[in-house]
Structure formats: C-alpha cells, structure tokens
Amino acid sequence: MSFILYFVIKVQSNSKYDNELVVEEYYKHDARFQEEMQRVQNAQDLNHKPIITQTHEGITIVFPQEFTTNQITGTVSLYRPSNKKLDFDTPISLSNPTLLIPKSKLAGGQWGINMEWQYQGKKYLTKESIYIN
Question: At a CB cut-off of 8 Å and minimum separation 6, what does 71 contact?
Fold first, then answer.
C-alpha cells in the first residue's frame, strides 16, 4: 500500500507528469459549443478558404483574394498539446492577404491552430494542426 502511495505522490508532485486540461475553463468552453459549430460551418461554406502552410520563415496564413484584407479581424491562437506554457495568441491585422507567424516563436513539434476571425460581421472559426520541424 505504501509503495503505491509513494508513486502516486511522486507523479502528482513532478511537473514532468503534468495532468492539465488542454483548455482552461473547460465547462465554459463547452457551453459555447453550438456557437462554435456555427462559426466552423461558416468557414466550411466559403468557396475559397484561408490556407495555412508551414514555410521556412514560419507559418503563413493566406486569406482569399475576394476579401478586403483590412476588414478581416480576429485572433490566431497557437497551442501545444504537450506544453501549455508555449501557447500564444496573435491578432489578425492585415495590410496584405498574408499573415506570417515567425518560426522564432515556434518550438519544434505539434501545434494546434485556432483561427477565430470575422469579415463584414460574419464570424468564422478555422482549426488545423501543423507539425514544426
């Protein structure tokens, strides 16, 4: 019994074995689920969708040419499923159709990208995963 208790305490006190939720305030996030699904559907319904790619400079997000770039607003949230300390947000403020997230901000590994944006009063949500070498 003491052997098992020792290992439970060791795992819980060691930050190497973080047992955090991926999303803070999980239950509040769940309550917004229907609204989120509508924003995802809005993004899926677009004829031309934003394109998220990895380049040698970092991650580029290219918005379709039919959008007036200075009318696109929102936030790009990048999160690491393995380490929330690396998570960060970048505001969408464009003068041309391309947004660059520099490679210097990105550690190697798996990244989740949540892009919440709006154009002419309509809200969109684009989610992707990307692996940085």
Answer: 119, 120
Residue 29's H or E segment, with its range, is: helix 26-31
123 strand-pairing partners: 118
The DSSP 8-state label assigned to residue 45 in this structure reads: T
Question: In this predicted model, what pLDDT tens digit does every residue of 25-39 receive, in sequence order?
Answer: 666 666 678 888 999
Region of 25 on the Ramachandran plot (φ > 0 left; ψ -120 to 50 alpha; else beta)? left
pLDDT digit string, tens, across residues 36-68? 899 999 999 999 999 999 999 999 999 999 999
Paired tokens of 27: 């239950």
Which tokens hold the place of 124? Answer: 């969109």
DSSP H or E run through 91: strand 88-92
pTM of the model: 0.73
